[in-house]
Amino acid sequence: MGEGETNAFPLIWTQRQQPRRRGLDREQITAAAIRVADEAGLDGLTMKAVAARLGPYSPMALYRHVHSKEGLFDLMLDAATAEIPLPGEPGDDWRRDLRTLALETRRMTSRHPWFAVLVHARPPAGPHMMRRLEFMLTVLVRRGATVGDAMTYAVLIDRHVLGSALQESEEARLERRHGLDDDARLYAAIATLRELAAADGGLPHLTEWLTHPAGPTPEERFVIGLDFVLDGIAARLA
Amino acid sequence: MGEGETNAFPLIWTQRQQPRRRGLDREQITAAAIRVADEAGLDGLTMKAVAARLGPYSPMALYRHVHSKEGLFDLMLDAATAEIPLPGEPGDDWRRDLRTLALETRRMTSRHPWFAVLVHARPPAGPHMMRRLEFMLTVLVRRGATVGDAMTYAVLIDRHVLGSALQESEEARLERRHGLDDDARLYAAIATLRELAAADGGLPHLTEWLTHPAGPTPEERFVIGLDFVLDGIAARLA
DNA sequence: GCTATGCGTATACGACATAAACTTTCCAAA
DNA sequence: TTTGGAAAGTTTATGTCGTATACGCATAGC
Fold first, then answer.
1. Is the CB of residue A59 inside 7 Å of nucleic acid strand C?
2. Angle formed by the axes of helices A147-177 and A94-111, to 10°?
3. What pLDDT does residue A17 have?
4. Distance from the A55 Cα atom to the nearest Cα atom in chain B, whole angstroms
5. What's the confidence (pLDDT) of residue A8?
6. Which of A5, A31, B165, B218 could cross-link B116 (Cys pair, CB 3.0–4.6 Å)?
7. Cα–Cα distance list, B56 to A196, B27, B40, B53 (Å)
8. Which residues in B lie closer than 8 A to residue A7 (C-beta atoms)?
9. How does pLDDT run across A160-178, given as a tens digit for each residue?
10. DSSP 8-state class, residue A89
11. What residues of chain B lie within 8 A of the CB of A8, using their CB?
């Protein structure tokens, strides 16, 4: 006590950044972890895999620098957030600012599908995550929203962005896990679903859709939903 | 082949329902698993815990009936979905139908916080999940939407409902894992975040909010976002 | 009563995160 | 140049998990 380290819980952001001498550091480890997760998915993100990616290291080597896997998650999330371009100042069109940020966030999550899964498991306390949120709040407050309302709107936008990302990423994970990257097998899996729906007897629309999946692409869906949210915010800002 | 069991992947719905003679069955196991998950969270949902909840059983006993933990997930998800009241037929107010369904779904997820986490990890192929989706499609198609558009709108509604549930449930999980159900510790954790934000120097709105968290309650937020989606759908149906 | 079926168990295996104790490396001061 | 000690990395070990396999036993149908 008296050290300023009386944390209610272990966020890596409240822990000492080592002075850096030689060997590994947080940055390298984070970058390696991100590469592993991008390539092998969250299932493949083990301490052993990250260590191996860094060279001839043992899994335990990482603990000197990140103290737990969750700490590594914090670092990964913030590093990925740092990839999202963030204007220094809001422009004069709030809607464009928020729309662009949402689209850029989506671009990031499509590079890093694990992001949407992890982000819900840790508090958004990294510096880049906080700065991104501050940007959204600033844009909205300048348009007359209270901070409380601005937080609500920001949360709703992120819910859509990250919800979309999560759904698409988990779908991809499922397909990968069961080898459905092969077209024939994917078709067979859909056929199984269609048969289940048809067997029920009372599911005409669902059966029809499974027979001829139609409608907007996932990307178009995302934009439609994003505009729903932005329209709603606009109506309340007015 | 020739058996109808050439599954591209193992959904429990395509597997034989045992004739039931004695001992355990899927229904009991599912109910026990749901109780365990409700009480101990997903982290506490182990095969061992479920077996123990059923009586003096070994974890391996479950495998006779569910063949894998993921199969158990499928059963849990569908059983929880079955708790959502579903009208036999749509009424004459599409918006009311969808709104009610969304609110009832939310009620279910607040009883079963694990739902929103698991639902993304498995295809929604259970009978109750399919019937619920069919209901949404029917409501929308009757109002003139194509099946493809109806699917989009249904997905957007669920994205909001489940996204909200996920965020709130993971927040609760985090708080539980770190003993923040104690008010003093929770306050300390928030103070830590505020200090981090204040230390950055460039986060006035976020710092302000962390000092005096204001704005709508989570429940109000949910309704605001739900109406954004419903308004958006209404505009496109017209 | 006999036998086949199928239910539950015991045992075992291979991942995984990570605690603790150790060894090695390298810098800084004497 | 020597030396003390901290920092970096490894080894070993522990406990938990899902689950494959092989087995014993009770029961249901004859």
1. yes
2. 30
3. 63
4. 32
5. 58
6. B165
7. 35, 18, 19, 8
8. 188-189, 192
9. 999 999 999 999 999 888 8
10. S
11. 178, 180, 185-186, 188-189, 192
User: What residue of A is the nearest CA neighbor of B192?
Assistant: A7
Q: How far apart are CA A17 and CA A36, in angstroms?
A: 23
Pick from A69, A106, A55, A63: which is nearest to A225 by CA?
A106
Q: Do B147 and A203 touch (CB under 8 A)?
A: no
Residue A194 corresponds to which tokens in the numbers above? Answer: 């269609």
CATH of B87-237, one of 2.40.50.140, 1.10.150.120, 3.20.20.220, 1.10.357.10: 1.10.357.10
- Above pLDDT 90, what percent of chain A? 81
C-alpha distances in angstroms, B192 versus A114, B186, B198, B207?
27, 10, 10, 11
For B169, phi and psi rounded to 5 degrees?
Answer: -70, -35
Nearest to A128 by CA among B210, B206, B88, B58: B206
Which tens digit of pLDDT belongs to each residue from B42-96? 999 999 999 999 999 999 999 999 999 999 999 999 999 999 999 999 999 999 9
Contact (CB<8Å) B192/A14: yes
> Which CATH topology does B12-81 take?
Arc Repressor Mutant, subunit A (1.10.10)
Give CATH for domain A86-237. Answer: 1.10.357.10
Domain boundaries, chain B: 12-81, 87-237
Tokens 């390539």 correspond to A39
Cβ(B32)–Cβ(B48) below 8 Å: no
The full DSSP string for B120-169 is GGS-S-SHHHHHHHHHHHHHHHHTT--HHHHHHHHHHHHHHHHHHHHHHH
- Shared fold status for A12-81 and A86-237: no
| A77/D10 CA-to-C1' distance in Å | 29
- pLDDT per residue over A79-100, tens digit each? 999 999 999 999 999 999 999 9
Question: Per the structure block, which two tokens stand in for A97?
Answer: 């600012």
Token digits for A78?
């913030």
| Protein-proximal positions, strand D, CB < 7 A | 7-12, 16-22, 27-28
Rounded to whole angstroms, how far apart are CA atoms B171 and A235?
29
